[in-house]
Amino acid sequence: MKNIIESLEDFLNDQIDTGLKIAQITKWGRQNTLKIDILLKLKGGFASLQDCENVHKLVLIWSKKENIEKNLNISVQSESINKILFDFEDFEENIGKKIKIETKTKIEDRRNFTGFLKQIKDGIIYLKSEHENLSISFDQVKKAQLLLI
User: Are residues 92 and 137 in the same domain?
Assistant: First the structure.
């Protein structure tokens, strides 16, 4: 049986336009309220206000279909200029750009790394910082984001 996030993500992916992608779905619940935050991304740009409104309407349709009886608090937004990198494709699209990576565990006594993304190959992310070349396993990434220079 699918959990709420998997069910919603499958439903939205079947309904939304090509090019638009669900980057992240987060849910919180408290007693009779369910809060759902959705982050959209659009290849080569940002999701429009209309895209966000359309996805919001789709969440309402999904909630009726799934008989969600809790009060819904839905937030749909486009990723910002400080883009979060979620998957291999995100990293590949940003080769040569400055990024910040937070790792799940310490590597050489630290968890935060900043540098220019040189490549991603065989599950390894290669960064060049001012003082060193770094290689970090994709599986070690807790969070990564594009930085403005």
Answer: yes
Clarify whether residues 52 and 110 are in a common domain: no
H-helix segments, the chain:
4-15, 49-65, 88-93
pLDDT tens digit sequence for 39-81: 898 877 788 899 999 999 999 999 999 988 888 899 999 877 6
Beta strands in 31-140 (DSSP E): 33-42, 71-78, 98-107, 110-121, 124-128, 133-137
- Phi/psi at 93 (nearest 5 deg)? -70, -15
Model's pTM, two decimal places? 0.64
- Beta strands across the sheet bearing 20-30: 20-30, 33-42, 71-78
- Domain end among 51, 78, 105: 78
| Residue 91, amino acid | F
